[in-house]
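Risk register update: the risk of archive-format incompatibility is retired. Evidence:
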Amino acid sequence: MTQKIMITGGAGFIGVNAAGQFLRDGWQVVIVDNLCRRGAELNLAWLQQQHSFEFEKVDVRSADQIAKVVRAHLPDVVLHLAAQVAVTTSVADPRDDFEVNALGTLNLLEAVRLHSPDSFFINASTNKVYGKMAEHPVVERNGRYEYQFLQSGVPETQNLDFHSPYGCSKGVADQYTIDYSRVYGLETVTLRQSCIYGPRQFGIEDQGWVAWFTIAALLDKSITVYGDGKQIRDVLHVDDLVLAYKAAIGQRSDISGQAINIGGGPANTLSLLELLNYLREQLDKEITPAWDDWRPGDQPVFVCDLDRAQQLLRWQPTISVDAGVVRLIEWVGQNSELFD
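Archived output:
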């Protein structure tokens, strides 16, 4: 029997990549999106040219609308990607950030609990729930920051310490997802995602830095480095992320009620300066960034420990940083008209 997946934020960068893969695999797909994000209408039109699926223009902040959509479709899986995604935006407008991320997730969980309790609920969380982790010393080695002792990265047992309105709102969603499994018996999982990049990502300066640097470098737009550029992240290509979603669905009963880190891990780390240097080499051009102060809540280092993902999901990244950035360069180069 064909399975059905509902993807909130399905016209966003991650959502449209996930939807495309599930459609290719023969799933019925319902995309739920309010189309407020830059590039969402372009992504939706691109997907509609290739596949047949259902689309609901709905905002997750509306409990009534979300309940109506869930009741109408009764999905086997809910992949919850709809979110406000930028720390800087959350600082400027914390109420809107809360309503989208925290209230929106609660609305969706309640709709599933009341109308489709057999659905498997996947929440896309973030590494920002861990905060600055000041108790873990950071050292500089070879022109980049690294943890002094966490050689495998940050495990899920790390204390949560949100440290920004965005971290708070996503942390609320993260913990509600876990608790709806414990209290109501729903099958849920929260995936704490690190930096995701890839095609169909319309990166902007304050979110999606790998894509933004790539777009700006190719199209001769200005680039600002906040901080000293030595901060590192583990980065993950979106194709590998979609494989993690599939793995989670395959293990839904065994992983219910848990939090799992999903990122590039120690083998796939990148600093801002390293990305700029790589782009200079690949594009054979000068790239001269502007510099500004550190942004609130910015971590000098974040790297996921992937042990739990490897054990529970039998998943690990397959696309190297170099190969993934080359793919992104090719996509931006082939679609430069989208960024006018």
